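Record copied across here:
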Amino acid sequence: MSQPPAPPPPPQSLGQITPVQVPAGQAIPGAPPPPAPAGAGPQTSQLGEGPQANQAGAGPQMSQEQMMQAMAAMMGGGGPPGAQKGPPPTAMQSIAGGLKTFWKTLCWLMAAPEKPEDAPKGLLAWPRRLLTGTRDWFLPSLNPIGPAPLQDYHAPEFGSRLYSLANSYPLPTWRPLARAVMSLTAIFIVWAFVAHLDEVAIAEGEIVPEGKVKVIQHLEGGVVREIMATDGSEVKEGAPLILLDLPVSSLNKEELQARMDGYILQRARLEAELHDKPVVFPEEEAKRQPGLVESERRSFEARRQALNATLTVLRDQVRQKGLEVQEYETKSRSIATSLRLSQERLAMSTDLIKSGLASKMDHVQIQAQVEDLKGQLDSVRASIPRAEAAQQEAKGRVSEELARFQRTAQSEMSEAELNIARTRELFIQATDQQRRTLISSPIDGIVKNMRSNTIGGVVRPGDPIMEIVPLHERLQVDAKLNPMDRGYVQTGQRATVKISAYDYTTYGGLDGDVILVAPDTTVPQTPNAQPYYRVVVQTDRAYIGDETAKRLISAGMQATVEIHTGTRSIMEFLVKPVIKLRHEAFRER
């Protein structure tokens, strides 16, 4: 009958050391066989320290050199010589194997020395003790029921040789600290993968009003007559700021008004002449310019009288030509009657001559008279069309005179309209110019950068006089973004604004949204200045802190804008330099 298997040994604490019995004459795998003393037979040896020493007849204790050789054999992969090897490892297996070998070597080098006097002193003892405790905590954990004898332990990660060597030395008292360090390391690695941090693009900027700072200028310039605001003054929209005297070359509003009134009265007169109606002048201009009204009325009457006189002469000529036509017509009728009678006498005379009752002399005279009357009749009839043509010509001169008068009136009317338009434009300019002599505030705000502080001082055209900072407008951050970050910044992204006037660690910052990203870079005019993209961030509020203790921000404060472009884990932040080094290093020519 087979005997029942022996019960397993009771679990030992992590601090208890179990001696490993090595048969006499059998070396630890991977270590050279120790020289056996003469006459020694089969015996066992105990590896360890403390109260258990080498007994008589026991095998020799493993020396430092033998342990190093065993470690080298273990690091070399172990196995009998000539053993058939498998396929070559992959890249990841090679990396994992290298890390394991490094850790094995480090743990072995940190093992406790054989002699106390060989232990390192001072600061060198701390890392040695720490790694020794880590090794002693980790290696026994591979076997949950405690360390196993050398011949029964087959852990593939470290090999039985390393475990047997580890069991040859007592464990130090740094095991709890090592466990804590390993636990913290594992927790840190997990936390580095899980925890995420914001990626931000940083841009420096300045607090500006939403409507921008208003620059006060003057188009024509002038001489300062009165100053009604100073630096720091709070002004309302339309409040007077400064009064100027215009230069001598400026437009005269009163002169332009009188000139325009004259053109309007002239247009009224010309309209009456053009339509042959009584003249009616506008009441407003007539009240302002009574002298011009009287002058235009006299001109109207004089021109009308001259036209009537010319038309009277021409109409008389028409009547005269009409009388001539009538005279020719009457004369023609008379000659025609005489001709008819003469022709009758000629016929009677012809009959009498044939009868021999009349003389031939009388007959010839009658015949001559008939021919003469025919010539007169033809001449009179030919004069009638000429007289009628002369009459029509006289009538045409009348119409032409009327048309000429109207053409003249129409031409003057067009010129008057053009002059009115030109004068009205100049009058508007003069009105604006006179209005601009009193410079007023365009918005509610605060005066700053007052440049004209002297009564009688000269303000050049287009030069800035002062600036007005808006009061009741939302504040924005006008920031300068590095072109390297442009690809990550888009409108609508959230941003954190840190005001330099308030400590961020104490008072916090402002949240906002990116509302504008310039389509192109801006290159400053200063030398050695770097180009930048203009970015505008609209803040959610205009103060820092809560409602009870809010600290207002104002235009001009400097700010740092952190635009949130995404998130990354802490591990990604840690390995980014390594990845960057891998892609960019060792490539220079």
Remarks:
- The chain is about 45% helix and 15% strand.
